[in-house]
User: Fold this.
Amino acid sequence: MGKSAKSQAAPGLLPWLALAFLIMVLDQLTKVLILGAFQFGEARPVASFFNLVRVHNSGAAFSFLADASGWQRWFFTGVGLVATVFIVYLLKAHPGQRLFCFALACILGGAVGNVIDRLLHGYVIDFLDFHWAGWHFPAFNLADSAITLGAICMIADELLRVRRSR
Assistant:
Protein backbone atom coordinates (compact mmCIF):
# COMPACT_ATOMS: atom_id res chain seq x y z
CA MET A 1 0.00 0.00 0.00
CA GLY A 2 1.49 3.33 -1.07
CA LYS A 3 1.72 6.37 1.14
CA SER A 4 -1.20 8.16 -0.52
CA ALA A 5 -3.52 5.15 -0.18
CA LYS A 6 -2.53 4.75 3.46
CA SER A 7 -3.13 8.44 4.26
CA GLN A 8 -6.60 8.24 2.66
CA ALA A 9 -7.49 5.27 4.87
CA ALA A 10 -6.24 6.80 8.12
CA PRO A 11 -6.56 10.45 9.12
CA GLY A 12 -3.01 10.68 10.50
CA LEU A 13 -1.80 12.49 13.59
CA LEU A 14 -2.83 16.08 12.87
CA PRO A 15 -6.64 15.74 13.20
CA TRP A 16 -6.27 13.98 16.56
CA LEU A 17 -3.87 16.64 17.84
CA ALA A 18 -6.30 19.31 16.59
CA LEU A 19 -9.14 17.66 18.52
CA ALA A 20 -6.98 17.50 21.66
CA PHE A 21 -6.04 21.17 21.18
CA LEU A 22 -9.70 22.16 20.79
CA ILE A 23 -10.61 20.32 23.99
CA MET A 24 -7.75 22.00 25.85
CA VAL A 25 -8.73 25.46 24.56
CA LEU A 26 -12.41 24.99 25.50
CA ASP A 27 -11.38 23.71 28.93
CA GLN A 28 -9.11 26.70 29.56
CA LEU A 29 -11.70 29.15 28.24
CA THR A 30 -14.37 27.85 30.61
CA LYS A 31 -11.93 28.04 33.52
CA VAL A 32 -11.03 31.65 32.68
CA LEU A 33 -14.75 32.48 32.64
CA ILE A 34 -15.23 30.82 36.03
CA LEU A 35 -12.21 32.62 37.50
CA GLY A 36 -13.62 35.93 36.28
CA ALA A 37 -17.20 35.40 37.40
CA PHE A 38 -16.87 33.50 40.70
CA GLN A 39 -15.06 33.92 43.96
CA PHE A 40 -13.44 30.83 45.47
CA GLY A 41 -16.17 28.65 47.00
CA GLU A 42 -19.03 30.58 45.39
CA ALA A 43 -21.89 28.53 43.93
CA ARG A 44 -24.80 29.50 41.68
CA PRO A 45 -27.74 27.17 41.17
CA VAL A 46 -28.55 26.43 37.53
CA ALA A 47 -31.06 23.61 37.99
CA SER A 48 -32.45 21.66 40.93
CA PHE A 49 -29.64 19.10 40.45
CA PHE A 50 -26.80 21.29 39.11
CA ASN A 51 -24.73 24.26 40.29
CA LEU A 52 -21.84 26.18 38.84
CA VAL A 53 -19.18 26.54 41.54
CA ARG A 54 -15.58 27.55 41.85
CA VAL A 55 -13.44 25.06 43.70
CA HIS A 56 -9.73 24.34 43.60
CA ASN A 57 -8.49 20.76 43.55
CA SER A 58 -4.83 20.37 44.45
CA GLY A 59 -5.16 16.58 44.26
CA ALA A 60 -6.22 14.19 41.53
CA ALA A 61 -9.65 12.77 40.72
CA PHE A 62 -12.09 12.98 43.64
CA SER A 63 -9.50 15.18 45.44
CA PHE A 64 -7.17 12.20 45.93
CA LEU A 65 -4.06 13.48 47.79
CA ALA A 66 -5.49 17.02 47.95
CA ASP A 67 -4.34 17.33 51.56
CA ALA A 68 -0.73 16.34 50.82
CA SER A 69 2.00 18.88 51.53
CA GLY A 70 2.39 20.21 47.96
CA TRP A 71 4.52 17.53 46.31
CA GLN A 72 1.40 16.23 44.55
CA ARG A 73 1.33 19.32 42.28
CA TRP A 74 4.61 18.32 40.67
CA PHE A 75 3.86 14.61 40.77
CA PHE A 76 0.55 14.99 38.90
CA THR A 77 2.12 17.50 36.51
CA GLY A 78 4.86 14.97 35.75
CA VAL A 79 2.33 12.16 35.29
CA GLY A 80 0.38 14.38 32.89
CA LEU A 81 3.49 15.23 30.88
CA VAL A 82 4.58 11.58 30.65
CA ALA A 83 1.04 10.61 29.63
CA THR A 84 1.09 13.31 26.94
CA VAL A 85 4.24 11.91 25.35
CA PHE A 86 2.92 8.34 25.53
CA ILE A 87 -0.46 9.32 24.05
CA VAL A 88 1.18 11.14 21.12
CA TYR A 89 3.27 8.02 20.50
CA LEU A 90 0.12 5.85 20.52
CA LEU A 91 -1.67 8.25 18.16
CA LYS A 92 1.24 8.00 15.72
CA ALA A 93 1.40 4.21 16.04
CA HIS A 94 -2.34 3.55 15.50
CA PRO A 95 -3.68 6.18 13.06
CA GLY A 96 -6.24 3.83 11.50
CA GLN A 97 -8.00 2.97 14.76
CA ARG A 98 -10.45 5.84 14.79
CA LEU A 99 -12.34 5.15 18.02
CA PHE A 100 -9.07 4.42 19.84
CA CYS A 101 -7.52 7.64 18.52
CA PHE A 102 -10.65 9.64 19.37
CA ALA A 103 -10.42 8.29 22.92
CA LEU A 104 -6.73 9.16 23.14
CA ALA A 105 -7.31 12.68 21.77
CA CYS A 106 -10.01 13.30 24.40
CA ILE A 107 -7.73 12.07 27.17
CA LEU A 108 -4.82 14.11 25.80
CA GLY A 109 -6.82 17.35 25.60
CA GLY A 110 -8.15 16.88 29.11
CA ALA A 111 -4.80 15.93 30.59
CA VAL A 112 -3.06 18.95 29.05
CA GLY A 113 -5.88 21.24 30.25
CA ASN A 114 -5.41 20.06 33.83
CA VAL A 115 -1.59 20.20 33.60
CA ILE A 116 -1.87 23.83 32.52
CA ASP A 117 -3.95 24.55 35.64
CA ARG A 118 -1.38 22.88 37.87
CA LEU A 119 1.45 24.86 36.30
CA LEU A 120 -0.38 28.22 36.37
CA HIS A 121 -2.27 27.97 39.66
CA GLY A 122 -0.94 25.00 41.63
CA TYR A 123 -4.37 23.36 41.52
CA VAL A 124 -7.07 22.37 39.04
CA ILE A 125 -10.12 24.61 38.71
CA ASP A 126 -13.37 22.63 38.96
CA PHE A 127 -16.81 24.14 38.45
CA LEU A 128 -19.46 21.57 37.49
CA ASP A 129 -21.41 20.47 40.58
CA PHE A 130 -24.11 17.83 40.18
CA HIS A 131 -26.14 16.90 43.26
CA TRP A 132 -29.21 15.00 44.37
CA ALA A 133 -31.04 14.92 47.70
CA GLY A 134 -28.19 16.60 49.55
CA TRP A 135 -25.46 14.42 48.02
CA HIS A 136 -22.93 16.17 45.76
CA PHE A 137 -20.82 14.41 43.17
CA PRO A 138 -17.27 15.82 43.37
CA ALA A 139 -17.02 18.97 41.25
CA PHE A 140 -15.23 18.57 37.93
CA ASN A 141 -14.45 20.47 34.73
CA LEU A 142 -14.47 20.03 30.93
CA ALA A 143 -11.01 18.42 30.99
CA ASP A 144 -12.28 15.78 33.40
CA SER A 145 -15.32 15.25 31.18
CA ALA A 146 -13.10 14.74 28.13
CA ILE A 147 -10.89 12.29 30.03
CA THR A 148 -13.98 10.35 31.14
CA LEU A 149 -15.40 10.30 27.60
CA GLY A 150 -12.02 9.11 26.34
CA ALA A 151 -11.91 6.32 28.92
CA ILE A 152 -15.42 5.19 27.99
CA CYS A 153 -14.52 5.20 24.29
CA MET A 154 -11.32 3.27 25.00
CA ILE A 155 -13.31 0.58 26.83
CA ALA A 156 -15.84 0.47 23.98
CA ASP A 157 -13.00 0.19 21.45
CA GLU A 158 -11.50 -2.74 23.33
CA LEU A 159 -14.86 -4.49 23.64
CA LEU A 160 -15.46 -4.04 19.90
CA ARG A 161 -11.94 -5.31 19.14
CA VAL A 162 -12.52 -8.46 21.24
CA ARG A 163 -15.91 -9.00 19.62
CA ARG A 164 -14.43 -8.66 16.10
CA SER A 165 -11.65 -11.14 16.92
CA ARG A 166 -14.13 -13.91 17.75
Remarks:
- Strands lie at 43-47, 50-57, 124-132, 135-136.
- The radius of gyration is 18 Å.
- The chain has one domain: 20-39+52-165.
